[in-house]
Structure formats: C-alpha cells, structure tokens
Predict the 3D structure of the following.
Amino acid sequence: MTAHEIDYHIYGEEMQYVEIELDPQEAVVAEAGSFMMMDQGLQMNTIFGDGSNQDNSVLGKLFSAGKRLLTGESLFMTAFLNTDMTKRKVSFASPYPGKIIPVDLTKYGGRFICQKDAFLCAAKGVSVGIEFSRKLGRGLFGGEGFIMQKLEGDGMAFVHAGGTLSRKELRAGEVLKVDTGCIVGFTSSVDYDIEFVGGIRNTIFGGEGLFFATLRGPGVVYIQSLPFSRLAGRILASIPRGGKDRGEGSILGGLGDLLDGDNRF
C-alpha cells in the first residue's frame, strides 16, 4: 500500500467525531479546523498540498496545493504523525450535524468523487485532487459547479454529510434523481448529469429549483438530507432585515418589505 494503513472508530449520533489509531510512524492528514484532540506523542505539522507524495518536486507540490485552491479549500493541510513507540490516537470532529462516512478507496477502485466541502481527513498518501465536469449543463446547473473533489489512493478517507445519510447501490443502467445539493459523493463508475425539471407550474411555482441531478449506475452513491447550503439559507432567511422582526408566520410575509419600502434583496 502507498497510503498508511489506519484503524478508526466513529463516535456519536448527530454530532459525530472519528477517532483514528496510528501505529508508530503512521500519519493522517486533515482539513484545517477539524482537529478535536490527540494523545501525547503525536507530532502536528502544516503541509503544503495533500501530502500524498506523488510528486515531491517544487512544481508538483505547487500543483497539488493549487488543485485544493480551486476546490475552495486552503492551500495547506495538517498532518499528524505518531513519533512514539506505541499506538496513539487522534480525533477529528464533524463541522455541523450529520454523519461521517468512512471510505475505503480499495473497495471503490481507488477513486471516489465528492462535493467540495465534504472531505474531513484521510490516511497520509491519499491524494485529494479535483474532478472537472466535462458536461456544460452539469457544471452550470449541477449545484457543485465545474469542480468537485477527487480522492485517490489505496487508503482510508473520511467525508462528512449533513443530516441523515442514505447509501444507494445502483445497478447497471439504474437511475436515481436527486436534488443537486443533496449529493455527498459517488464512485467513479457512476455517470453524473443534470436534468431539467420541466413543466411551467413546476418551473415557476415548484420551489425545488429548475434542475435535479441524475445518477446512473453501476456504482455507490451517498445522499445527505440536510446540505449545509440549505441549512445556512434557512438561518439567513430567519434573520430580521433592518433590525425589524415581524414575527414568524406573518400574514404579509415577504410582501411586507415591499409595502414599507424595504425592497432590498
């Protein structure tokens, strides 16, 4: 194996964290801000890129870090190395209520595609790269843009999903239609595209957006019930604008802003 072989245990139900056990000289890499706690004997280092060691040249490291920048992540990641002579543990917490998904890349052909902010941590040696959409419609209306994250290697990786998690195993040719924001990730064998909802009433009054994603098997798909964008949107919508609170369930609702001259959007 090129990636370090790690053991793990996931704790909790709604606000989970993953505890990773490292043998001597084993390491794990994680997104900045996900660290929770660690045993004495672990050395924490900030690294440039993903630490996959696929190309140790200066240009290789710059390209690795640049790929992360395109996905909206930091140029740097944090590596935790066990420098002790015995096994040590380090834990990483989920950023908001949901589930942590362990992804054994050896079971998925060494490649897994996920949304840009789903990655939590992985065994050192796993490559965290980018997946460009080759379809114009998918890139413009797919909810994730033209770029998603691509996890490659032969180690363990951990991604996070919001709310309740659903795992679907699609047969060859089987199609699953999903809200574009609810996709967590899928195996590379799954064909991902977008489809117009259709119908004038659906388009104007449906309230579910103009497009949904179509996932065609074979392969494994992970779906989340509460995307962070939906959670953030509900929170922002509940904040009174201009310091005025009409109360939840107001008869006028959004029209009240127009009547009193507050028509900012």
Summary: The mean pLDDT is 79. The chain has one domain: 7-233. Helices lie at 58-70, 136-141, 200-205, 228-238, 255-259.
